[in-house]
């Protein structure tokens, strides 16, 4: 039942527990207790609202920063990842495979602020060997949600032989 509850909550964190209990055919108290237990165990780590900032007047720049680091003896990548994720500007940190070790997601007001973060905070950490910064130019889909309006007309040109 946990996975079913998680699936519903992941798609709609605002779902009413009474509504969920009706859908699942389980008493609301059972659902509430299960959700509370999963929050206590940190299976459910938080609830978030997905905002399409492009539709507001707020300027935001999202950067994906690849970071190559020297793993720390006895701690691997965990200690350096912790130092990075403790910066308030950092939205996410992932250990990744490939040419880089960590992927850092950052949201700032402008390109200059991202650049300042990388040069003054990230690159100055002893374990950081190199970085590569990529800027998100357009979000098509985020957290499973399509960010653009659905196109109802076919805009392709008709090509005939």
Walk me through the structure.
The structure is a single chain. This protein is α+β, with helices and mostly antiparallel strands. The protein has five helices and six strands; from the N terminus they run αααβαββαβββ. The chain has a four-stranded antiparallel beta sheet with strand order 2-3-1-4. GO terms for molecular function: sequence-specific DNA binding. This is Lrp/AsnC family transcriptional regulator. It comes from Candidatus Galacturonatibacter soehngenii.
Give a quick set of tags describing it.
single chain, 161 residues, alpha+beta, Alpha-Beta Plaits, four-stranded antiparallel sheet, two-stranded antiparallel sheet, 5 helices, 6 strands, extended
Instruction: Count the beta strands.
Output: 6
Structural class: alpha+beta
| SS strand fraction | 15-25%
Spell out the helices and strands N to C: HHHEHEEHEEE
CATH superfamily (homologous) name of the largest domain: Lrp/AsnC effector binding domain/regulation of amino acid metabolism (RAM) domain
User: Strand order within the widest sheet?
Assistant: 2-3-1-4
Low-confidence stretches: none
How would you describe the shape? extended
Number of helices: 5
CATH architecture of the largest domain: 2-Layer Sandwich
- The CATH topology name of the largest domain reads Alpha-Beta Plaits
CATH class of the largest domain: Alpha Beta
Computed over alpha carbons, the radius of gyration is: 21 Å
Q: Describe the biggest sheet?
A: 4 strands, antiparallel
Q: Which percent range fits the helix content?
A: 25-40%
Query: How far apart lie the N and C ends?
Result: 57 Å
Counting structural domains, the number is 2
How confident overall, as mean pLDDT? 90
Protein name: Lrp/AsnC family transcriptional regulator
Pfam family, one: AsnC_trans_reg
Domain Transcription regulator AsnC/Lrp ligand binding: 65-138
GO cellular component, one term: cytosol
């Amino acid at each position: 039942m946990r996975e079913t509850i998680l699936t519903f909550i992941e798609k709609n964190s605002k779902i009413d527990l009474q509504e969920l209990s009706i859908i699942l055919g389980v008493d609301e108290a059972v659902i509430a207790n299960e959700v509370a237990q999963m929050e206590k165990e940190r299976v459910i780590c938080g609830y978030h609202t997905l905002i399409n900032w492009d539709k507001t007047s707020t300027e935001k720049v999202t950067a994906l920063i690849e970071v190559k680091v020297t793993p720390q003896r006895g701690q691997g990548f965990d200690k350096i990842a912790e130092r990075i994720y403790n910066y308030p500007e950092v939205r996410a940190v992932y250990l990744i495979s490939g040419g880089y070790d960590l992927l850092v997601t950052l949201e700032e007001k402008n390109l200059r602020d991202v650049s300042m973060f990388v040069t003054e905070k990230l690159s100055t950490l002893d374990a950081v060997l190199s970085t590569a910064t990529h800027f998100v130019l357009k979000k098509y889909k985020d957290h499973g949600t399509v960010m653009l309006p659905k196109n109802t007309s076919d805009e392709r040109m008709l090509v005939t032989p």
